[in-house]
Description:
By secondary structure, the chain is an alpha/beta fold. It has three domains: 3-94, Rossmann fold; 104-299, Mur-like, catalytic domain (UDP-N-acetylmuramoyl-L-alanine:D-glutamate ligase, 3-Layer(aba) Sandwich), CATH 3.40.1190; 310-456, Protein-Tyrosine Phosphatase, Chain A. It is 34% helix and 22% strand. Strands 8-7-9-6-10-11-12-13-14-15 form a ten-stranded mixed β-sheet, with helices on both faces. Helix 9 packs across helix 10 (292-299) and helix 11 packs parallel to helix 12 (354-371). The radius of gyration is 22 Å and the shape is globular.
Amino acid sequence: MTNYFFCGIGGIGMSSIALYLARQGNAVAGSDRSFDAGHNGEMRRTLARAGIALFPQDGRGVRPDTDVFVVSSAVEDSIPDVRRAKDLRIPIRRRAQVLAGILHDYSGIAIAGTSGKTTITAMVGHILYKNALDPTMINGGISNNAYHREKPSNLIFGHGRHCVIEADESDGSIDLYTPDYAVVSNISLDHKPLDEIRPLFASFLSRAKRGAVVNADCPETRRLRLDRPNVISFSAAGDKRATLRAENIRQMPGGIRFDLNGMPVRLPLVGAYNVANALAAVGAGLLAGIPVADSVRALKTFRGTRRRMQAIGAARRIAVIDDYAHNPEKIKAALTALQSFPGAVFVIFQPHGFAPTRLMKDELIRTLHETLGPRTTFIMPDIYYAGGTVAQDISSRDIVDPLVRKGCRAHYIPTRAEIIAFLMPRVKPGARIVVMGARDDTLTDFAKDILNHIKKGKP
């Protein structure tokens, strides 16, 4: 048994690893400043039910008998827990290092890409589970399905030989993974410039020991030289050269229908972008030995992942939706899905940090200008700030003002209370309100607050 302490254990990626290690019989403890602030209560309860000891993030929980101190890339050395671990000379490991160690104990399937990797990871885990392969899945998002009689979770703890993980490129940790099978959903601008992430993805694919799945529709993935056997390509645009191709895509009430190499498929998910996600997952299933028809059958019961076009509820014929979209490509995909149905759309997008906003500013403005329709009102509050010493030299107003000059219905509204006051007299029956953004666990609470105000019928 190993004693682990996780600093930032409430994070979606950290918590899944902590839960896995606890299920393996290790002693696991941790702290998180969101817990100290009274937020993220559901995750706190999930961790406590798993027997994980939780402490204030003030150094008291880090004890001399701690064997491994685990941190995420977002944790700074100034945090008392980190200082305490260094004083005690406890070995400090990054989240991705621990995850890589787990992956390499299995026949590993690592899902990477700028967009869609959380949903694809959940889809692959679901496909393997439904086909009786008893997989382990460690994800950066919570599946809406329940496994092994447990509540929906970011973890499937199985006893089979496969482990499916979400591999993140934003902090460069993708370089730590050497999977049996690698999946790259797409490559686009997000946390790093394209010149920096292209070699990361190329190296990741080259390390895959037994096979790879790549997107034939993405210009960046097409540029990658894959001089290796057992490569499966997929195309949601019907490219005949792809191994897996979707055609006749149709948006339906409550889902999508399409033909996969001539086979009819029904996905109980909204958003045409989920067709590409499904094709990637079916490709991973093929590499694991699962026939296409069996993967398609499994996906009929896949319920999606939390905060990916998740319906919070509706009142007075006004729907409120929670979504994780936070980069230009994801926002474009979400807007395209929302605007494909009649009715007004109100989008509230909270940027997930000053550095990503600075990097994506021009691309975000261009994408929004091209994508925002006449029925859509776009709202930006202040940029999310998680603490630390980051330079706060950009504002949401730097995105909104150019959009207004271009004729878009865009508004900079700093606070949530002001946003609700703005919405209440403007939303009418038939409208949809979507809250978008990453990292901030309270965004779902904000979406629920909006719904409660609609139910009351007053600001």
